[in-house]
């Protein structure tokens, strides 16, 4: 069996490569920057001989054949925002003999459609739902085997706080009590790998979250505990947050929904409560945010 891993240098993709190669599976890693990918994946996998890196880009159809030739199964990282790439890449993969797709989708793909969004949050979630669901539908239409892995909000989003924490500064953000069941990227990768190498998840959509709601204040506290020191949290007003995000280069059109995503989770988990899919599949409780902080403590030092 040979598995193509797209998005191979991403936070989840590199874990998929590592887990597959450690299980003895031949891996072809597709990347727009193969030299950088070889260096990164060689470090992550101990230079495993089973990992072949090729150049490929969802936006460049002429690069697909080299990536797909001789591949049996494919882990498809989101190309939901590459106009026209989804159905084309999937069709090309089937022509090259790919018989199973594991789609890295998003939890939003399982939400009910919203015909007329009433605010920035609904509009954003509907955009996410429609884009990722379109990729899932394209894969299902091929007649090949498929599994959709739908992660919730990823714990790695907290790496945006790393510069402040490294500088011994406070983490500054709005809505400190807003929380979600942040998911460890390794948990997502484990489900993807199980879907690639076993038949247990064929035809299933799996929504993977962390085990419990964790507020932003609790996230910062957990990172501090992993580092062995206190890390302060400074709450911003919505207007202060917008100004900070502008200075950080956040596009103006994203500001409203970034605030809305947090405001929606002040009481509960907003649109995404914890799911039991990971535990049902693996027999284990998902990794906690505290464990994620320990695993990533070097990123904050």
TrEMBL record:
Checking Pfam families in the record gives: NAD_binding_10 (PF13460)
Which Gene3D superfamilies does the record match to this protein? NAD(P)-binding Rossmann-like Domain, UDP-galactose 4-epimerase, domain 1
Domain of life the protein comes from? Bacteria
InterPro entries in UniProt: Ergot_Alk_Oxidoreductase, NAD(P)-bd_dom, NAD(P)-bd_dom_sf
Q: Where is the NAD(P)-binding domain?
A: 7-196
Signal peptide bounds: none
- Name of the protein: Uncharacterized protein YbjT (DUF2867 family)
- Give the organism the record lists: Kribbella italica
């Amino acid at each position: 069996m040979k598995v193509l891993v797209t998005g191979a240098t991403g936070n989840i993709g590199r874990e998929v490569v590592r887990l597959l190669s450690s299980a003895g599976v031949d891996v072809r890693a597709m990347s727009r920057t193969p030299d950088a990918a070889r260096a990164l994946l060689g470090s992550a996998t101990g230079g495993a001989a089973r990992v072949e890196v090729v150049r490929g880009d969802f936006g460049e159809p002429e690069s697909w054949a080299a990536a797909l030739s001789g591949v049996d199964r494919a882990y498809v990282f989101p190309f939901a925002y590459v106009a026209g790439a989804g159905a084309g890449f999937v069709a090309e993969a089937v022509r090259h003999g790919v018989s199973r797709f594991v789609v890295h989708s998003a939890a939003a793909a399982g939400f009910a459609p919203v015909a007329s969004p009433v605010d920035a949050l609904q509009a954003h979630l509907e955009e996410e739902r429609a884009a990722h669901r379109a990729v899932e539908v394209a894969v299902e239409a091929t007649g090949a085997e498929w599994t959709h892995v739908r992660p919730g909000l990823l714990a790695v989003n907290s790496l945006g706080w790393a510069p402040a924490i490294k500088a011994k500064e406070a983490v500054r953000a709005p809505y400190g009590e807003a929380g979600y069941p942040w998911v460890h990227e390794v948990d997502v990768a484990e489900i993807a790998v199980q879907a690639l190498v076993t038949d247990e998840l064929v035809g299933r959509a799996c929504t993977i979250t962390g085990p419990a709601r964790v507020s932003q204040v609790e996230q910062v506290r957990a990172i501090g505990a992993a580092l062995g020191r206190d890390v302060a949290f400074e709450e911003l007003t919505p207007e202060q947050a917008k100004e900070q995000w502008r200075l950080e280069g956040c596009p103006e059109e994203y500001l409203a929904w970034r605030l809305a995503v947090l405001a929606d989770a002040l009481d509960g988990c907003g649109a995404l409560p914890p799911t039991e899919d990971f535990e049902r599949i693996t027999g284990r409780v998902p990794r906690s945010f505290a464990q994620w902080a320990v695993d990533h403590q070097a990123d904050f030092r």
